[in-house]
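Two proteins were folded this term; both appear here.
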Amino acid sequence: MLIIFFTLITSVFVIQFNTTRNFLREHQTTEIDNAVSAVGMALAPYLETGDDIAMESVINATFDGSFYNKVSLELFQENKKIERAYPAKITGVPEWFRSRIEITSITRTSTLTSGWMQLGELTVTSNPAHAYQKLWHATMQLVFGFSITFLFGGVLLVFILSRVLHPLKAIQKSAKAMSKNQFGKPLQVPHTRELSDVVKAFNHMSAQLKMHFEQQAQEADRLRIRAFQDPVSGLANRSYLITQLQSWLNGSSKGGVVLLRVDLIKDSYEKSGYEAGDKLVEKLANRIKSLTSDNFTIARLTQAEFILLAPNTSTSELVSLGRSMLHMSEELHSDPLDVSPVQAAVGVVVRNESDTISTILAQADNALTQARQQPKEPLTVFDNAQQAATMGKLQWKALVDEAIANNLFRFKFQKAINDNGETLHKEVFAYIQKGEERYTAGQFVGAVEQLNAGPQLDMHIIEQLFKKLEDDPELGPIAVNITQSSISDTGFIRWLCNKMKANQDLSERILFELPEISFIKHSNDTDLLCEMIHQNSFAFGIDNFGHNFSSVSYLSKVLPAYVKLDFAYTTQVDNEVKADLLTSITRTASNLSITAIASRVETTRQINKLAEMQVKGFQGFVVDEMKREEAV
């Protein structure tokens, strides 16, 4: 429309310009014809008498340099010629204008007579200077006027079109958001008839897609509850606990379990029915959930028994957790005078290297039995000599500070591959090498988190990794874990934001891995960090996805690049119920363009089975073995 408007304005300008030029040419012709006629009549009496002085006076008075270029009077009787020449000076008109626009001089010749006798011949040549000046002045007025008109018309046209096409821009913006699986409020139906139907159809499609994703998330939640979650308390069930215990016992991690039995809940079930008992269970579970951590697993073992699995935790910390659980159970019983006996007991078991699932649960049950015989504080600890030498939180913190100061951190990488065997990224595992001793992150991160020293640790590790990426262009992409305490630290978030801004060229070579627990406990801080990562064109993933039994619906809000599934979801792929759960979760992630990565993959059969369930990424022992075989 602007092009058409410009063409129209240009056409009018050209027409007006040509009209003005033609008018000036005709005016010049008319003026010289009138001048020749008038001068011929004035000269006639003097020609008859031969008064040369009078004839020169008439010529000088009539013609001047602004309109005429040359005047010539030839006298036939005297054989004499009177000539006047005026320089053709054209001022105020650019040379390029005169060279492109031609206005030629006009010459008129008239024979002067007296009766039948020819007395002389008058020749006058016009000066085009005046016509050029008038035409240039008119051109400037036209250019200025049409420019103002075009600018005003263009602005008005843009304003009108922006108002008319505003619904289309809203559709465009909403379509971009929907392509990223982000669904906002329905668009307002415009008054434009042609666009109203489009907006209505678009709103309907957006609502259908949003409902589809919500239904998928709800389906995954229902299947998760069915497979791994206790429906009353919302904690893990026995099946999920056994999976976590097996993984813990297979590794080198220390720590222990805390078993809580609440007789008040059992009595409530027996005396008041299931509804009253369920209310107490739900109330206690909500309190116990405050103890959860990214590494902890809290489960409801039986009707009135609750167990907390705490890897990499010292004996004193296990006792502290046990006392907290005991105190929470006491709050269920209304006793203003504090005279009734405690209707709960806690057994704490510190892991031994030779423990199995059956032995550690048996020890916990025995510890619980002994605790019930101690009315003052019904809490018993089963410990062993190996744990007595375990370092405390402050010692671990001092070791980490020393490692940061003396650059004792080392890194190893574990690949995550897709179903085609291509590398997705390499996850970074940091450890401290002090002399001959090696300390893995699993040993000291728990203590660092409890002392809120995660930001210093994360900043040091990230700084080292950025340097490695700059020094080695072939390295990457790599994924680095962020501790939970760092996500809640505004100073760390500000530091990381500045770091990303200063290293935009590394945005494709490093990813940040956030623990799932941070999206539950510190959702506002985590959402802020995710938004800053997106704004700086970096990407992030979610670790231990599904460990804390949160709804998967938050994925559409934060949009990570990948989710690393908790290994409990990928170890029992032959179980139909758990296979359905895994398929539902991976389908939801896939529809949001999020890669689902299975961790701790140990066999190629497991890879093939997981691939059938739309798992697109694999990480674990078997992946390392496959890469070593390829290298050989």
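Next, the second protein.
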Amino acid sequence: MSPLLKFTYTIAVILIVFFTSPFVCLSVCPKKESEALLSLSFTFKLTDSSTPWTNETDCCEWHGIKCDENNSHVLGISVGIMEGLLIDDGIRGGVIADSLCKLPFLTRLDIWDTGATGTLSSCLGDLQYLQFLRIVNSRLSGIIPLSICMLTNLTELNLGGNQLSGSLPFCLNKLSSLSSLSLANNRLSGQIPFTWGDLALLKSLDVSFNQLSGNLPSSFVGLSSLTELYANGNRFNQSNPSWGFPSSIQTLHLSLNHELTISDTFFHNLTKLEHLSLSNCTLNISTSWIPNFQLVELELVLCQMDGQIPPWISTQFSLGSLTLANNGVAGEIPSWLWATSLSELNLSQNHLHGPLFPNVPNSVISVLDVSSNALNGCIPSLWPRIEYSPPQGFLLMLNDNMFTGNIPPNLCKLSPSVKLNLENNKLDGMIPWCLIEDGSTVDYLNLGGNSLEGRMPQGFIVSSGITSLVIRNNQLSGAFLPSFTNHTVLRILDIGYNKFTGHLPKSIGKISALQVLVMNDNQFSGEILSEIGDLKQLQILDLSSNNLSGSIPHNIVFLEAMAVAREDAYATYSELNYGGYVIRKFFSLGGLDVTSKGTKQYYPYILSTFTGIDLSNNQLNGDVPFDVGKMKGLIFLNLSMNNLSGIIPHSFGDMSQLESLDLSSNKFSGNIPSELQSLSYLGYLNLSNNNLSGNIPQGGQMITFENTSYSGNQYLQGCPLPRNCSWPKFAPPPPVSAAENKDEKESEQIPWYQIGVGWSYGAGFLIVVVLLLSVRERWRRKYFKRVDDLLKFMFPFMRNRRL
């Protein structure tokens, strides 16, 4: 080829690229698809490198959107909180709109933990290319449309964690490519359709925690690919199905259903079973039975075991996790348990006695729960060194037993991360302070309810890694002067019911993460620290029954966790585990005693919305901060048995969540603020034994309290007190206004005006008839003829009736 021709070709190629590149760049996301995405109305907290969802940018560049590289059609949506889905934890809300169906080329829809609302539109069946449909942990409502059965390319369907209701779609058997189906944690009812047995490729089925009933369909025996079946938390009453389960099942969860009767035939064909969870069942299994499977995980809760651990469990040599809680198991812990490969063992809430184990166990158990039994003897001092710690750390729960003796110091370095609960035993001696001091590997510690004694060493620095410290209800004494650092993660500190003396340690103000502070029933003196006002996350403050004096620090009203009013405070599952940690199959590490509504109450868990202050039975004086009403989220407040004076602040009426208020046995004077009538949640009120005067407000909850709530106030009057109470215990009906009274009297009078109007119309009609008859003779004759005919007709009829 000549140089000239080569040059010509080169120029042509350059011109083609130059003139066509703008058109290539114009291939962007279609407008309809962009508008459909915007209708989902998700709000993101994006990183600097993320592109927000706006009309100003191409939707193919948006956060969580995947498009076809050729024609820019939207192929995938991935939004929510889930590792691997590219989305951060800043997503908020969203609506599942019908416009979602305007994305005809969509192959993947992943929406996780967004709180998205809406319903599943029947037009979803038009998304013929959809392969993955996952809308999980949101707030979808309504029924599952039958049109979803048209998605024949679907391989995974997950609608778990929503509010879906109605029955299960019977036509899902048309989804011949489906391998994973999850409808867990909804409100679905009815039975599992028989047609689901046609899902030949189904590997995982999860319908747990719904309201399903009946039996599992016998067609399930044909699910030859099924390896995981989660049907727990329903109303199934399956008992030894004659058809048996598919032999392919490896994981079977049937807990929390109606009572199950389990015999050997129940496990027919389950040769590959590895994970089994049953509860509330009756085991009718022969003691000589040897299973034809090897379990890795076994959970049997609330099953009747006839007082012993089933011998067949000893044949499970691959067992790594065993839970036999609340089964009435008695006797000693069998020695063969310690020779297994168990890493997690839960024998809690049984009747076991004897020592924990006679010698050092051969197995390396990282989670051991034997709480709520009758085990005795000393806590073993020799433990195997655990080099590997699971994600939750080494969990040792020996609480609520009868262990005696000292706490072995070996527990201080047991594992890189230790959670230890020895509450409610008979332990004595001194606390090995290495459990708590800086450098300790213990991050949760509960030693409450024992007979431990001694003093805290001077210059003691609390471990910066400990998140829960409970040493209440012991015989500890001396000054409590630990040093807390600014970087501590301590959330719960409970040293109540001891004999600590001295002033409150100022370093408490450095515990920025503290949520529960309980120091009641000690011998602390001096003033309440103003540094407590710096604890922005504090939910529970209990300094009752000490010798504290001075006034209530004003900055206590700035505790931020107590300043947020929650209109529906208990409509949440969020909770602060008192003891700091809860994992699957295991119970909390402790509880909390709170004096609320006049009595001591025990809370094993503290909701994230539960807040309260108890400063009762001290020597506090002065006024209550006038702006105490800033703590709008406070649920209980106890300032009784002090020397507080002045008036009761009117701002109490702003504490809209208050349920319990105790100001008794003080020196308050003046009137009871009428603003207390607006406290609609107030269920307990005690203003007795003060110097209050005037009338008791008679509105709202005030009229529901007994006279004991107001007694001991010499100049207070009005119901329910006998002084100047002019009506019964319950308030009289509200007074009728003058206008209403006038209307009522008028309604009781005879309506002469209406009667007169009626007579006038009647008389006028008769006059018109008479005038017409007198003017026209022809009309007059016809009229009287009609009257005569009518009389002739009626007379025989009336005569026959008389005969």
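Residues 777-802 form the longest helix (26 residues). The helical segments are 3-25, 31-38, 738-748, 752-775, 777-802. These notes refer to the second protein only.
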